[in-house]
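User: Hello! My lab partner asked me to get a predicted holo structure for this protein. The small molecule is zinc ion, SMILES included with the sequence. Please write out the structure tokens.
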Amino acid sequence: MLCQKCSKTLEWSWKEFTRWLRNHPETDAYICKECLTSERNRKHGESKTLLYTHWKSMFVRTKGQSLEANKKYYLDKKIVVCPEWRNYENFRTWALANGFVPGLELSRKNHDKNYEPANCQWLGKSEHRKYDHAANQIREQKSDIQQHSD
Ligand SMILES: [Zn+2]
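Assistant: Hello! Below are the structure tokens for the protein in complex with zinc ion.
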């Protein structure tokens, strides 16, 4: 068997081959164990890092450690991260159960409400901009809109 990724050839017994055949009825493409593992780790690592960044930035914003111009949207409104999400594992579980994939942004449905499961959703970038714009027509300063990425 020839790995489609690293082109390593593996000697298989007939028994191993038929087992593979049984488990992969739809594809003829064989990928070796090492390639499968590294691919899985890469994908896992990517979303793990991204999610962690989303999690962290909730605190950066709500604790007023982001741009001065953003303080009035978070700190002044007393926006907080809900107790449940202070635990990263809980946030990650929610994110994955609610359609998070790399590239999406965390969006609050109501910008006067907290970061909590009922008030949050994952949106694509352009979708998010539209949503953000509609929900915040009061925001006039161009710089704020550009710098603000919630
Ligand atoms: Zn391989």
